[in-house]
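Table S7 (text form). Paired inputs.
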Amino acid sequence: MSHHAEQSLSPMHAAWQRLMRQRVHAVALAFLVLLVLACAVGPMLSPYTQDQQDLELKAAGPSAAHWLGTDSLGRDMGTRILQGGRVSLEVAFLATAVAAVIGVGFGMISGLAGGRVDAAMMRLVDIVYCFPFINFVILLMVIFGRHFWLIFVAIGAVEWLTMARVVRGQVLALKNLEFVVAARANGASFWHLLFKHLLPNLVGTIIIYAGLTIPGIMLLEASLSFLGLGIQPPDASWGVLLGDGSRVMDISPWLLLYPGIFFSATLLALNILGDGLRDAFDPKSMSQQ
């Protein structure tokens, strides 16, 4: 597509065209779409449930009945991997949404307010940055107990800090441009400036950093579950499966190998897509490479 034709498209459509121009980005997106569909539908179509046990079979390698083998309780690993993928992806996307809502709102208000308000809000971010994340998760679990919703709330409540700083920096650059100055001169209110003038110009930045945040949150959730602080049995996530597999890897290597392949491939695809989103919404970064 010519540069002139690309300019005639809407910003979102032009970004989509730039994203799909690179085959590796299209392949990563297709893989993630197929994975999400498999994790959403696969467990319902499987002849096994994630908790269905066969104590006589116990840990067995791949077979015609169980393509990815079974774990130490005789549960089908294929079903558990898809179910675990569903949980891991749910936590990643929900935590990213929480981080985006808090971070975008906080960063926009701080950047537009400026002065002492901005200084106070950024010092709060610095203080929260200094608080150890593991201690924060343990504190929440002591107060509220171990619940699924607590995982993505806890992760999202910490991951918003980087988003807030990035959005604040963008707002500081935008609020002195002519269209914002003109709107303010015409009597636009603080909230009108935020939602009508600044937020539409931040969509690309938000999408970029949300795309780069998702794999980091998946890795964080897996680490928590691996340590026993995340998803609790009988529910499973990829972190739980990796933790279980690591304890028997010497006698049942498939219990670590197959979840590890799914987890690593997903993180790779998410990182590739995140880089593609950055290039698509910020063509200057691509031209500087």
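Next pair, protein 2 of 2.
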Amino acid sequence: MQYRRLGNAGIKVSEVSLGAWLTFGEKMDEKATAECVGAAIDRGINFFDLADAYARGEAERVFGKVIKAYRRSDLVISSKLYWPMSDDVNDRGLSRKHIMESIEGTLRRLGTDYVDIYFCHRFDPETPLEETLRAMDDLVHQGKVLYWGTSTWTAAQIEQAVGIANTLNLYRPQVEQPRYNMLDRHIEAEIMSVCASHGIGLTVYSPLAQGILTGKYNDGIPEGSRAAEREWLRQSIEENIDKVRQLTAVAQDLGISMSQLALAWILRRPEISSVITGASRPEHVVSNAAASGVTLDEDVLAQIEEILGNAPQ
């Protein structure tokens, strides 16, 4: 496993990380979670990404039990807040009240004194940005959060946050977590350059485009599968399957899996700190972790670019 800095910060995260969305505490019980976390740590993965909204807190609770077997300082743990956790009118968003109460719930469920990274899961148009930044700055000063970041914010919103932080001498966001993969390259247009200019790292999610870039749909969509039941996913598969089949052939020529090719392609960009993968079985973790260190030469990258034909203009 290779490691990268979180933007210009001193902390280093594994190139491939393990996320908990739709898995820990939902599809997976404590035993299955422990097996995947153990496989990740054995392969050098140190970054684990969660959110209070994942399985309504259950992901954090299950992960908190599992990590008791490991030394806390060896792990980089992130969580997020924004989405409603109850029907209460204030139990949502990025108000000072919600931020201060949410971090306490997250720390309690994880069984730890701090999180390494705390993300604002979305931008909150109903809360003054200065209020959000002052609350996050306070959490850093209190030692409950080491670094804070944004998730799925626009380039303009990130710029505004950095500007306010600089003016008020507050801790700036250190990381953005956007969606990014071979089929969705929107962050290349503005977000990558804005983050790079401010020393902000990128930890990207959905690197395999909901499984499309694993190649598992190359022979069709199985009846009863998630893709068969979701119109938007089925449509995306149909629109991109020819590209994925061609990319699978490229991966085979390189002696790697389609998933590893997709992850290595993301890691070609120096702006990326880590690619967040999901896994429900240890063998998935092992396969994904092997993408770290895979180098795609210029000829291969050019071939991929020709197949994709979707570089932002």
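The chain has a mean pLDDT of 95.
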